[in-house]
Amino acid sequence: MEPLVVRLRNRGWRLTAQRRVIAEVMAGEHVHLAADEVFDRARAVLPEVSRATVYNTLNELVGMGELLEMTHADGRKRYDPNVEERHHHLLCVDCGRMLDVTADDPSLPDDQRHGFELLGIEVTFRARCPACVRATATPS
Ligand SMILES: [Zn+2]
Ligand SMILES: [Zn+2]
């Protein structure tokens, strides 16, 4: 998968300094950040970045299909730059860490569709990551 900033440059998206920093924050694998986290990380690199610009840019990128917006079992809205590979998510319910995983889609038999037209499938595996399991393990 090409990094978001490269995809945006190839599309001719106007990369201002603020937009570039936001796109760079969203680079890499297993990136699933809430808007506030994007803002904090962008501001660490470019102190003059504004919260409004972060929110507007994220919305614009969702509209362009370059970010997925998702709300998961823990109720937080996150942005995911992995729009090219179909994937599901492994979510640590304790710390919120979220990884991309590939797994077969669950199937919904016709007689369970109630006439609905299926638009997509999102699977979240609710789990606890090794660090959280370790943190709550009873010392022996
Ligand atoms: Zn965890
Ligand atoms: Zn993802």
Account of the 3D structure:
The protein has 140 residues and is α+β, with helices and mostly antiparallel strands. The chain has a single domain, classed as Winged helix-like DNA-binding domain superfamily/Winged helix DNA-binding domain (Arc Repressor Mutant, subunit A, Orthogonal Bundle). It contains five helices and five strands. The protein has helices at residues 4-10, 17-25, 35-45, 51-63, 130-136, and strands spanning 68-71, 77-80, 88-92, 98-101, 124-127. The strands form two sheets. Strands 4-3-5 form a three-stranded mixed sheet, with no helix packed on it. Strands 1-2 form a two-stranded antiparallel sheet. The longest helix has 13 residues, at 51-63. The protein is globular, with a radius of gyration of 18 Å. The mean pLDDT is 91. One zinc ion binds next to helix 5.
